[in-house]
Amino acid sequence: MSEELQMIIDDAEEGMQKAISHLETELTRIRAGKANPTMLDGITVDYYGSPTPIAQVANISVLDVRTISVQPWEKNMLQPIEKSIMQANIGITPQNDGNQIRLFLPPLTEERRKELFKKAGGEGEHSKVAIRNIRRDAIEQVKKLQKEGLSEDASKDGEKEIQDITDRYIVLVDKHLAAKEKEMLTV
Predict the structure, then answer these.
(1) What is the pLDDT of residue 167?
(2) How far is CA 1 from CA 21, 113, 157, 167, in A?
(3) What is the pLDDT of residue 119?
(4) Fold for domain 3-29+109-185?
């Protein structure tokens, strides 16, 4: 197999791995009924004029299965943190007691669970589309190489290997979704 063809295959696999990593990150943000500090990832607070992640202005910890505590390092950050959590619309109302903010996760209703399944499924579908787009681009590159002199057999072998890698990553997406679904049901 030519070096250029191997590079195309390696780049495609690397791109697909990034799609899986992104899916894993997005799935951790979807609430499964258990308190998880990563639910607050991506929420920024106005810290002296610059948007700063909550984790950089407060200590985030899990008190029990359904409670997250956000303890700001500076007392004057309580209000901005509370406001940011409200604006993030994560489905939890913060409780400010003057020293810390507590987030009480209500038990998931059947309706909310279905909503979360749908959201997780949507994230999975985005990942599958990204993986298929990477496959399409890689196969186009292989066909371009074939026009530049790569043998037809080598081209077909490269396309088959790209398809095999794609199939493997699509199955991985399904496994991640099944694991998230199981996590949502066991609360």
Answers:
(1) 93
(2) 29, 48, 9, 21
(3) 86
(4) Topoisomerase I; Chain A, domain 4 (1.10.132)
Residues in the chain, overall count: 187
Q: Which residues pair with 60 in a beta bridge?
A: 70
Rounded distance between C-alpha atoms, residue 158 and residue 139, angstroms: 8
Stretch (H or E) spanning 102: strand 101-104
Regarding the domain delimited by 37-104, which CATH topology (the fold level of the hierarchy) does it fall under? Answer: Gyrase A; domain 2 (3.30.1360)
* pLDDT tens profile 109-139: 778 778 888 888 888 999 999 999 999 999 9
Partners of 72 in the β-ladder: 58
CA dihedral sign, ordered 26, 30, 32, 38: positive
